[in-house]
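Hey team,

Filing this mostly as a record. A colleague (T.K.) asked me to run one chain through the structure pipeline before their review meeting, and I want the input and output archived in the tracker in case anyone asks later how it was produced. No errors, nothing strange. Just documentation.

Input sequence:
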Amino acid sequence: IRRPPRATQSRSSAASDVYKRQVEKVAKITKKSVKTVRCWIAGTQKPDALAQSVLEKEFKVPAKYLFPEAS
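Output structure:
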């Protein structure tokens, strides 16, 4: 028995799914809410020192590059 083929996702829908999974992953590893992570991405909030340290280790990028100071 074969399953019928799935409908192919549009590129934007697939990209949206990837973004959502990445945001959820960051929320999980930092033990913060998805809403908080979205605020970090938007630049309206900055993660605390512990969250920054966790993200540095996860992404192998210094926090100063992940969260540059607004100039």
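Quick notes for T.K.: Helices lie at 11-30, 34-42, 49-59, 63-66. Residues 57 and 63 are 10 Å apart (CA to CA).
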